[in-house]
Fold this sequence. Notes:
Blueprint: E1 2-7, H1 20-27, E2 32-37, E3 50-52, E4 60-62, H2 64-75, E5 82-92, H3 95-101, E6 106-111, H4 119-124, E7 128-131, H5 141-152, H6 162-166, E8 185-186, E9 189-190, H7 200-218, H8 220-224
Parallel strand pairs: 1-2, 1-6, 5-6, 5-7
Antiparallel strand pairs: 3-4, 8-9
Amino acid sequence: MRIDILTVLPELLDSPFNTSIIKRAQTKNAVKIVVHDIREYSQNKHKKVDDYMFGGGAGMVLQAEPIHRCIVALQAERTYDEILYMTPDGKKFTQSSANKLSLLQNIIIICGHYKGIDSRIREHIVTQEFSIGDYVITGGELAAAVVTDAIVRLIPGAMSDISSALNDSFQDNLLSPPIYTRPEVYNGWEVPKILLSGNTKAIEAWHLEQSLARTRALRPDLLDE
Length: 225
């Protein structure tokens, strides 16, 4: 899989993509992540990529031309399955979204900044728009890192044991059950006896029961879905 990310602040993505699972996935060639500085596609002598809004209003807007020029250059080299835009008014990014995107070959993620991007890119180029929550952050870079992480960990070869990802919260619209590790007793707190029984079927039934109970208590909306 290949993920191309368009941004005005590429340095923000250095650390997230050079540690842990994402770094290992790239080393194993399970995924290739390429970050593009939109300023490199500006024809302005000062590499300016933003301007004031037509109609007035506070804040700057990323111009359509440098974003479009970058996308056209990438599309000349390969076909892209999706072109995503990270924006607070996009649809909520979920585990289901990550599952579907992880099956694709090539995607582009556009990071908004300032007040966002010229809407003509959204109207004519972007295929899906995502939000990671009902709040506003400085730019789309951190949101793109979250989405990339959620996608990459599902790609075969990224994790040593893919079953770990398949048992995560939200995979079946359920929260994960409680988890424990050694020692069996700490500070007088004991691990549930069922988990020490060795009875696989009983443990699976307990996990499901606990997942349902936690989901009902903490995220009943998931059961409605």
